[in-house]
Write a structure and sequence with these properties.
211 residues, mainly alpha, 9 helices, 2 strands, binds adenosine-5'-diphosphate, binds magnesium ion
Amino acid sequence: MAKDTLSIEETCDMMIAVADKIIESEPILTDADRALGDGDHGVGMERGMNAVKDALADAKFPSVGKVFMGVGMAMMSSMGGASGAIYGTFFRSGGKALGDAEALDAAGVATFFKAGADNVMSRGGAKPGDKTMVDALVPAAEKAAEATGGSVSDALTAASNGAESGKEASKAMIATMGRAKTLGEKSVGLPDAGAVSVSIIVAKMADFAAS
Ligand code: ADP
Ligand code: MG
């Protein structure tokens, strides 16, 4: 049954399910980054998500925000590369914005994505349209903000739809940040690797909340 809110334990289980999904998706992320970058995004994400599973297994967290902060810390300390720092910032600042909440609701989903996306932009310098994971994170935050009146499942589904359309829209963009920048117009036609990983992560979060 679609969930109205997620408890701390459910939030942990959701992120472990996300970790397994990303580990399984390593070849997709490798191919996406090989096309426009250096090909290490899949292996980096796999390493990061194994660290996330280690950090969340058997751990007790006092709030849902601390679960997301734990995800961010595990990714930041294990991955390296641009995406380790960017994802670390995203999950840590998104989690921090949730304060002491002991359940994740629709409004919390909106708060989480907005704070996460804003901090990624202010720390990493990318704006919408630069063909980075920002192009999936910002529409995820915007769609979540329109879905605060329903269940956590509705809000995560809205965020997932936003991330998916942002990832699709990134295909038409010319890269102006990160490694793909040197390709210029040759980057048109393929999605940004980080936008692909964001869309997989948010889709799995929505899946978990819907089931
Ligand atoms: P690296 O670029 O160090 O090889 P990864 O391959 O793991 O790291 O990650 C690449 C992804 O990181 C890109 O596809 C892009 O989405 C994201 N990225 C790179 N720089 C930035 C930035 N300044 N802001 C947001 N995302 C970024
Ligand atoms: Mg790379």
